[in-house]
Design brief:
225 residues, alpha+beta, Jelly Rolls, Arc Repressor Mutant, subunit A, 2 domains, 4-stranded antiparallel beta sheet, 12 strands, globular
């Protein structure tokens, strides 16, 4: 589904294109903001930090994703941001006034339908990852996160084979699977994963999901519109 021209026009008309270097905080937790963001390029990590200062990944957002969604359809725009939004790669975003966007959503059925579609897919992805977090088998948890990242961040080349422009790290998998980096690193030393993950000489990687048992995994949907 292509983004509505009306929705694109609001972001483009304000001409507020911003580049965030990798690691930059785009939205601070507890901050009060009057803008929404549309990702033009890159990956945004939704996260929080525990009392020990460790980062916990809540979700990953990709090209064309608009955030925070809740501000567009509820009165939560007046509340503080619930999480940090951080550039996991170099990110280019467009910013637009939240009031203008909410007015558009209220008066344009196609835009409202688009947002509901994206929210639903994001919700299903989150539920599937929560289901995976409840598993006790480490290998099953790692397999699911590889599958999750391939579909969420990759471009399908052929059946079950995805190209990722930005490689994920052992720490990324650990954060999303609720494991330690050491546990993930031990799993990745298994010969099985040499067939699943192939890193390129330059940035990027190929993921071959044919070498994983994905038929019994919960659903994951790409978030690009």
């Amino acid at each position: 589904m292509a983004q509505s021209d009306a929705l694109k026009d609001i972001f483009l008309s304000e001409n507020r294109r911003i580049l965030y270097p990798k690691g930059a905080i785009i939205v601070m937790q507890d901050s009060k903001l009057a803008d929404a963001y549309s990702i033009h390029k890159g990956i945004v990590k939704v996260c929080d930090f525990d009392r020990q200062g460790s980062q916990n990944t809540i979700a990953l957002l990709t090209k064309n994703h608009i955030f925070p969604f809740s501000w567009l359809v509820t009165g939560l725009a007046e509340d503080n941001a619930l999480y940090y939004y951080q550039a996991a790669t170099e990110v280019i975003c467009y910013r637009a006034n939240i009031d203008a966007l909410r007015k558009l959503v209220s008066h344009n059925l196609s835009v409202a339908t688009l947002l509901v579609n994206l929210i639903t897919r994001s919700y299903i992805n989150s539920v599937s990852r929560i289901q995976n977090l409840q598993k006790t088998n480490v290998e099953e948890k790692v397999d699911f996160i590889i599958y999750y990242l391939a579909i969420l961040l990759g471009k399908q080349q052929e059946k079950n084979i995805y190209e990722l422009e930005t490689p994920f790290t052992h720490q990324d998998v650990a954060d999303l699977a609720g494991l330690t980096r050491e546990s993930v690193s031990r799993q990745f030393k298994k010969s099985k994963y040499q067939q699943v993950i192939q890193k390129k000489q330059k940035d990027g990687m190929t993921i071959n999901l044919n070498n994983l048992d994905i038929n019994n995994m919960p659903p994951i949907f790409g978030l690009e519109t």
